[in-house]
Amino acid sequence: MTGSKAIGIDIGGTGIKGAVVDLDTGELVSDRHKVKTPDGGAPADILAATVELLSRLDGADGPALPVGVCFPAIVKRGLTLSAANISSEWIGLPAEQLFEDELGRDIRFINDADAAGIAEQRYGAAADVEGLVILTTLGTGIGSAFLNDGVLVPNTELGHLEIDGFDAESRAAYSAMEREDLSWEDWAKRLQRYYGVVEALFSPDLFVVGGGVSKHHEQFLPLLDLQTPIVPAVHRNNAGILGAASLTRH
Ligand code: BGC
Questions:
Q1: Which residues have CB under 6 Å of ligand 1?
Q2: Most buried among 23, 77, 100, 233, by the most CB within 10 A?
Q3: What domains are there in the chain, each with its CATH number?
Q4: Cα(235)–Cα(224) distance, rounded to whole angstroms?
Q5: What's the whole-model pTM score?
Q6: Would you say the C-alpha torsion 218, 219, 222, 227 has a positive or negative sign?
């Protein structure tokens, strides 16, 4: 019986991660495997690395599981349409079709933050929340997912709001904290400005904060003063895998 299992693959700027997911429980039922993202992030190289990762995840003799892939770009009707932190060769590429042809099965291709939003809505911090949940992932860039009464509005790209003359993610992503060696307090001031603008524009009912750094949420979330409740994501680094896998079901 493979009906309740799928493979989720999360392609990022530094690593490509994947695991088998039980879609009923939202749990990983295999080890999480990871390969390094090839330098330059060109489509052919990423595809080859994904094939290698998938060969480690597929059961030796079982039927091929469905695969969901999430990616750090706008994804519309299977096309990747932007490339903020990845090779510009992805812009305008029929990525879903290319992956289907190379991997020989149906694929769901989705933006990485949207996948994380779906994971939190189905198995995490956004489950059963009424109204508008805005999930943001704080990593190399800032990704965003809008879930209104549980329905995803894809490709919101709030990392690229222009705030104080800057592309917001260049100031407020976790990579900015690392690059500029900011203290938690100084980074939190930037997050305050960022979430303050997002809140004023969209009046959400809940913010969910994902990305690996959210495991340190007690260092920065209490420093924020917002009208909207703000909570850490439950799934953090596995959210993309979970969300991408779970989308294969519908
Ligand atoms: C990209 C988004 C992505 C986010 C997180 C941004 O730079 O434009 O598509 O979701 O980074 O990876």
A1: 72-74, 82, 84-85, 111-113, 137, 139, 141, 143, 157, 159, 169
A2: 233
A3: 5-112 (3.30.420.40), 125-233 (3.30.420.40)
A4: 21
A5: 0.96
A6: negative
